[in-house]
């Protein structure tokens, strides 16, 4: 059957079309079935939506179909009903608890990339791994298949260093220091980063305050060859593209069963040979205790070994935000200050610690001291400015050049004492209520952290916003929550009563 195309201008992440119910009946398809759409030698499989009163000579297409077939308004396309993909059989096997081999997983990943699976089918598949944890074999198979179905950076260099944080604490601007430290010391570190979904700022959001991050693979490669490093948004690169489609399903459900292959596939696609995985431990972090951390670390290391990547996992303190800020512009400012050795001690300590691990992995002794010297000498700051220029930003940008929200609310201590708890989740939520990460100048500034002594009436937290109405929402929210708890340990052992099992925080550990 041949139909005339009409563009409806929405994107859903998968190819979708809308046809009249009479056309659906003639083709023998129902909602969520598939149609093969052909145009000038190209074809795409699209999910069917059925409506009434659509002209029977027309087919409405979304942006994935429009762009995938390079259509023009009024173009005539051929449409055919098509059978469900073979991968659907493997997904049904997975739902029955059957472990999948490489060939089955590669077939599924190829169909994810091609958009042949409906959102319902992909969701069921992802949830199956949330309910029944992925094996190490499957994590390796997914990592490998994700790389093989996407682009690779193709740098003719070795070693290639990289780092990744599994997240969980606000304000983790470590990458903005680690990348220039490593690059300044002559090593290659092509860092791809994500934007925030549930946090106040992803690394790409922080970096975007300083420079463009929406680069192509070719532009990324050019920047790395010029400066040894980069910090770019991974979403535009088509490196392990199946991962981006999986993430779109995971985040609304607040689940992350694919986090190991997600991370390792992207490291392999940039050619990384040595990787440090930062794993914050603590209340409000993704990993709650040392036992869970060691189990996860073993899986990272094993998958890395099979991919030919040397992996170390750094278990880091995650009981409070890193540094004193959360929000894109505030964090970019703080990172620039840290690169001049006037930033927060915990940020400098963590960044040089992780950079030091990378240096030791490639044979240097005393890696942390070497990294700290690169920071103190100004080499790292100069290198970041080179990277900023290579990515199209202003290499002379200063802290004062970065605007922050003009609207502010200050929370003050209601009594004298010491800070005994900082709630990561509340801090992150405050920053997002204020507008972060969409409003780059929105966020939170901490004036007190764990152990600090405060007097009644002292400022302990400041919220910045660009829009006054958002700040009023913040003030209302703060009437019912306590982001920073103050007391004396011997007087306040009971923090609150809860109806679920409490989690335990951790200290700083390093797996070597």
Task: Give an account of the 3D structure.
The protein has 512 residues and is of the alpha/beta class. It has four domains: 80 residues, Barwin-like endoglucanases (Beta Barrel), CATH 2.40.40; 46 residues, no CATH class; 211 residues, Nucleoside phosphorylase/phosphoribosyltransferase catalytic domain (Pyrimidine Nucleoside Phosphorylase, Chain A, domain 2), CATH 3.40.1030.10; 84 residues, Pyrimidine nucleoside phosphorylase-like, C-terminal domain (Aldehyde Oxidoreductase, domain 3, Alpha-Beta Complex), CATH 3.90.1170.30. It is 40% helix and 20% strand. The strands form five sheets. Strands 1-5-2-4-3-6 form a six-stranded mixed beta barrel. It has a four-stranded mixed sheet with strand order 7-10-11-19, with helices on both faces. A four-stranded antiparallel sheet has the order 12-15-17-13, sandwiched between helices. Helix 6 crosses helix 11 and helix 11 packs parallel to helix 12.
What CATH calls the topology of the largest domain is: Pyrimidine Nucleoside Phosphorylase, Chain A, domain 2
From the N-terminal CA to the C-terminal CA, the straight-line distance is 62 Å
What share of the residues lie within helices? 25-40%
Which spans of ≥5 residues are poorly predicted at pLDDT below 50?
500-512
In terms of topology, how is this protein built?
Blueprint: E1 2-7, E2 16-20, H1 21-27, E3 34-39, E4 42-51, E5 58-61, H2 63-69, E6 76-81, H3 87-95, H4 102-114, H5 119-131, H6 136-148, E7 161-165, H7 175-184, E8 189-193, H8 203-208, H9 217-227, E9 229-233, H10 241-253, H11 259-269, E10 274-281, H12 290-307, E11 310-317, E12 325-326, H13 328-339, H14 345-361, H15 367-376, H16 379-390, E13 407-412, E14 417-422, H17 424-433, E15 443-446, E16 453-454, E17 459-465, H18 468-478, E18 484-487, E19 509-510
Parallel strand pairs: 1-5, 2-4, 7-10, 8-9, 10-11
Antiparallel strand pairs: 1-6, 2-5, 3-4, 3-6, 11-19, 12-15, 13-17, 14-16, 14-18, 15-17
């Amino acid at each position: 059957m041949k139909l005339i195309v009409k563009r409806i201008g929405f994107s859903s992440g998968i190819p979708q079309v809308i046809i009249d119910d009479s056309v659906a009946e003639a083709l023998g398809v129902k909602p969520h079935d598939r149609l093969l759409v052909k145009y000038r030698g190209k074809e795409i499989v699209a999910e069917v939506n059925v409506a009434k009163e659509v002209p029977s000579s027309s087919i409405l297409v979304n942006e994935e179909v429009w762009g995938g077939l390079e259509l023009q308004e009024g173009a005539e396309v051929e449409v055919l009903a098509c059978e469900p993909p073979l991968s659907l059989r493997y997904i049904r096997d997975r739902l029955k608890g059957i472990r999948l081999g490489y060939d089955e997983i590669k077939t599924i990943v190829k169909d994810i990339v091609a958009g042949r699976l409906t959102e319902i089918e992909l969701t069921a598949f992802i949830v199956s791994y949330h309910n029944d944890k992925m094996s190490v074999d499957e994590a390796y198979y997914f990592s490998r298949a994700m790389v093989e179905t996407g682009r690779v950076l193709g740098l003719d260099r070795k070693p290639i260093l990289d780092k990744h944080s599994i997240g969980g604490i606000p304000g983790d601007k470590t990458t903005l220091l680690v990348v220039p430290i490593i690059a300044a010391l002559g090593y290659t570190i092509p860092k791809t980063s994500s934007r925030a979904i549930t946090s106040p700022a992803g690394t790409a959001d922080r970096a975007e305050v300083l420079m463009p991050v929406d680069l192509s693979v070719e532009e990324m490669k050019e920047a790395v060859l010029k400066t040894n490093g980069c910090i770019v948004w991974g979403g535009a690169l088509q490196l392990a593209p199946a991962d981006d489609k999986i993430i779109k399903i995971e985040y609304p459900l607040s689940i992350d069963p694919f986090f190991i292959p997600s991370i390792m596939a992207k490291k392999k696609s940039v050619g990384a040979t040595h990787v440090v995985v930062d794993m914050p431990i603590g209340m409000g972090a993704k990993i709650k205790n040392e036992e869970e951390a060691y189990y996860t670390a073993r899986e990272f290391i094993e998958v890395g070994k099979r991919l030919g990547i040397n992996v170390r996992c750094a278990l880091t303190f995650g009981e409070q935000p890193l540094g004193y800020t959360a929000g894109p512009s505030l964090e970019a400012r703080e990172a620039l200050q840290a690169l001049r050795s006037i930033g927060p001690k915990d940020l400098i300590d963590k960044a040089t610690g992780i950079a030091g691990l990378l240096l030791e992995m490639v044979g240097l002794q005393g890696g942390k001291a070497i990294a700290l010297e690169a920071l103190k000498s100004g080499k790292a700051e100069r290198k970041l400015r080179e990277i900023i220029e290579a990515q199209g930003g202003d290499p002379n940008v200063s802290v004062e050049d970065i605007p922050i929200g003009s609207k502010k609310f200050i929370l003050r201590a209601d009594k004298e004492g010491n800070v005994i708890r900082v709630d990561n989740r509340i801090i992150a939520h405050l920053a997002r209520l204020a507008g972060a990460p969409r409003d780059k100048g929105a966020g939170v500034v901490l004036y007190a952290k764990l152990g600090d002594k405060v007097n009644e009436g002292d400022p302990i937290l400041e919220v910045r916003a660009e829009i006054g109405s958002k700040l009023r929402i913040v003030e209302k929210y703060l009437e019912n929550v306590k982001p920073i708890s103050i007391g004396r340990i011997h007087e306040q052992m009971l923090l609150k009563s809860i109806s679920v099992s409490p989690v335990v925080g951790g200290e700083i550990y390093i797996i070597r």
